[in-house]
Amino acid sequence: MAEPVVIWGAGAIGGTIGAYLARAGHEVLFVDIVPEHVEAIKAGRLAIEGPVDSFTTGGDAVTPERMSGKHKRILLAVKAHHTEAATRALAPFLAEDGMVVSCQNGLNELVIADIVGRPRTVGAFVNFGADYLEPGRILFGNRSAVVVGELDGARTPRVLALHEQLKVFEPEAVLTDNIFGYLWGKAGYGAILKASALDNQSIADFIANPARHGLIVALVREILAVAAAEQVKVFGFSGFDPEGFARGDAAAIAASMQRMEAFNRASAKSHSGIWRDLAVRKRQTDVAAQLAPVRAAARRHGLRTPIADRLVELIGEVEAGARAIGPESADALSATVRQAA
Ligand SMILES: NC(=O)C1=CN([C@@H]2O[C@H](COP(=O)(O)OP(=O)(O)OC[C@H]3O[C@@H](n4cnc5c(N)ncnc54)[C@H](OP(=O)(O)O)[C@@H]3O)[C@@H](O)[C@H]2O)C=CC1
Ligand SMILES: CC(C)(CO)C(=O)C(=O)O
Predict the structure, then answer these.
(1) Each residue of 23-33: pLDDT tens digit?
(2) In which element (H, E) is residue 47 found?
(3) Cβ 169 under 6 angstroms from ligand 1
(4) Greater pLDDT, 340 or 117
(5) How much is the pTM?
(6) What structural domains and CATH numbers belong to the chain?
């Protein structure tokens, strides 16, 4: 693609994708609110570290106040609770025929479309693991799914071109006509990651812990019931078998849990980004923002989501300093499953 790509939110996800594009000679403009990180990128000190790859690159980089011009392709990679503010900030710089691509967890496409319009919103699903370590340093923990698609599933020239560009980062990137199928799949799988953040266990250990089995199954099924009510055909990835979970098929669920455990055990990113926000960065997470559209959809369909509701409450308590991360907090979530049964 000849036009520059804007990476809005150049942390773990945006920084990694942008670094690959920059290294391959694509013109990249990184935008981030962390001035030291912006300076490092500008100075050519954006380092990708870890088992997947190791290289240092850089590119043009600005904080949002210094942004200018009109851009056709903006990849948004901020946390879900920052989506609205970031989209409002980027909107003046989005060309009339431009697109914002949500490289995020959650159903952020709905928020973005409300601000810049559905025709200027493109969906993406990312499941690779990365951690922002410090300004200019990102751990690329493992490769995993990268999927893009127009919200209405059309194979437009712009999404075909975007797909080709993303292959520079992930050669197996997928172009889909059902992006919401992947996003709801991540909502189901991502619920496990969110629950795991209540404990200090790694994602793999949390999934393998027999004490968490009932919680994981009930939580995933609760989310998938909402997806079913929304009439979304949900896709699996990285060992996650949504159909097996939705059917309540014990053998399929056990096999899926084993695959998800193995997938996560092989990653250098041992804990979820949410756990990292709570335990390492000591800051608010985007759990409530990620689950808001899921819970809202549930209410529209007259469905209850007691486990997701409690998960949001418990994470909120940790964020507020009123609860510690540990087995007791995961037990408190498990208790909801018994009450709901
Ligand atoms: N990390 C991972 O492995 C994965 C993450 N995801 C999803 O990807 C998305 C991005 O996550 P991740 O990269 O981990 O997050 P990071 O916090 O590492 O990166 C986001 C960056 O955007 C910055 N930012 C916040 N608000 C704005 C704004 N208004 N304008 C510009 N920059 C801003 C952040 O600054 P500050 O830190 O100061 O807020 C940070 O530098 C999230 O939705 C996450 O759930 C999906 C799959 C895997
Ligand atoms: C664990 C991971 C990287 C998915 O593989 C993730 O989505 C997260 O940390 O939020």
Answers:
(1) 999 999 999 99
(2) strand 46-49
(3) no
(4) 117
(5) 0.98
(6) 5-177 (3.40.50.720), 184-340 (1.10.1040.10)
